[in-house]
TrEMBL record:
The lineage of its organism: Bacteria, Pseudomonadati, Pseudomonadota, Alphaproteobacteria, Hyphomicrobiales. The chain crosses the membrane at residues 21-41, 47-64, 85-103, 109-127, 139-161, 167-189, 201-224, 236-254, 275-296, 302-322, 334-356. This is YeiH family protein. Belongs to the UPF0324 family. The keyword Cell membrane applies. It comes from Methylobacterium komagatae. InterPro entries: UPF0324_pro. Coiled coil: none annotated. It is found in: Cell membrane. It is a multi-pass membrane protein. Keywords: Cell membrane, Membrane, Transmembrane, Transmembrane helix. Its main location: membrane.
Length: 359
């Protein structure tokens, strides 16, 4: 008995835990490498990716899970990749934001962008609930549409304690529409008679990811690309306040009836660190340090690449946690919800362009 007890020292316990995490992380890493290779092939052929590695990773994860369910030795590492590594990635994203460039764009446009995000979240949430989606999935879809697609979904998910199947479904269908937006949005230039500046604002307000904004605006003009990127950065900056807001709301959200008993979020008094998750504080701190010039330009690109890599890794983990049969059952409603929400967002954005008199 004593020899058995002595074999579990703190150091050995930590080593055992690390060892148990490694198989799952390794599996997620293998999927991530394939996904990033797929994006590299796209960039080589088309000059930009139509389907990013982040999306490919979750789709590949779902595909692997469909033909093979990872055993117990993989589950700890998969869960670690889906949660802890994702939180680190969200924190690191703050280093790529500079408040100075955003403030220089003028208070009227900034206020319009903030209003568009707020109205977009509210409208999307209402549409999703009207179509019968669970509250947490409705929040994920709303934030994904209104802010920055997959990244917003990934950031909000741990705060509201979303189910892995809801996260994966939201990301999968948002990703499909993200690609369609890149391909179809330039048609608004002739159809709506938009100038390059107006189109840049529209792209920045509606396209999900920054790389997708570039893909949607580069074929139009350099001005559209510059304006679209700036507006998109303001939208991304809204992620911090939105996540903080949902961290306050999360304890009062009911859970899906299918969730196992005893897993509901506690609704008692919460500490500040529970209300504002550590990774959001880290995100805001790094954004502030970047704005003050305390994070050098040379460090931004490596940090951003690391954040992107960890996000791809976590998306592979989320895909591995999804039963595709569950995804198929909710597919129709999610697709309709995301599509309707996106149409509303485009309408709001066009109205803002006209209202502000953007030339």
């Amino acid at each position: 008995m004593s020899s058995k007890a002595s074999s579990h020292t703190p150091g050995q316990a930590e080593a055992a835990r690390s060892h148990s995490v490694l198989p799952g992380i390794g599996l997620c890493l293998a999927i991530s490498v394939v996904a990033m290779s797929g994006q590299a092939v796209e960039e080589r052929i088309f000059s930009h990716p139509y389907v990013e590695a982040l999306v490919l990773a979750i789709l590949l994860g779902i595909a692997v899970r469909t033909v093979w369910s990872p055993g117990a030795r993989f589950r700890t590492g998969i869960a670690f990749s889906a949660k802890q590594l994702l939180e680190v990635a969200v924190t690191l994203l703050g280093a790529s934001l500079s408040l100075g460039a955003i403030l220089a764009s003028g208070p009227l446009l900034i206020g319009g962008i903030v209003a568009t995000v707020a109205i977009g979240i509210t409208a999307s949430y209402g549409i999703c609930r009207l179509l019968g989606l669970p509250e947490r999935m409705a929040i994920l879809v709303a934030c994904g549409n209104a802010i920055c697609g997959n990244s917003a979904i990934a950031a909000v998910a741990p705060v509201i304690d979303a189910e892995p199947k809801d996260i994966a479904a939201s990301i999968a269908f948002t990703a499909v529409l993200g690609v369609l937006m890149v391909l179809g949005l330039p048609l608004f230039v002739p159809l709506a008679g938009l100038s390059d500046n107006q189109y840049g604002v529209l792209a920045g307000l509606t396209v999900y990811a920054v790389p997708q904004v570039l893909a949607a605006t580069v074929p139009v003009s350099l001005l559209a690309t510059q304006v679209g990127t700036l507006v998109k950065l303001v939208r991304v900056l809204m992620l911090g306040p939105v996540v903080v807001a949902f961290s306050l709301i999360a304890p009062h959200l009911p859970h899906d009836q299918s969730r196992p008993a005893g897993t509901a979020v506690r609704k008692g008094r919460l500490s500040f660190t529970k209300l504002v998750p550590w990774f959001i504080l880290g995100f805001l701190i790094l954004a502030s340090l970047r704005s003050l010039g305390l994070i050098p330009d040379a460090a931004v690109q490596p940090i951003t690449h690391l954040a992107g890599f960890l996000t791809v890794l976590s998306m592979a983990a989320l895909g591995l946690g999804v039963d595709v049969r569950v995804l198929a059952r909710v597919g129709g409603r999610v697709t309709l919800s995301v599509t309707a929400s996106l149409v509303v967002l485009v309408a709001i954005s066009l109205a803002l362009i006209r209202l502000l008199g953007i030339a």
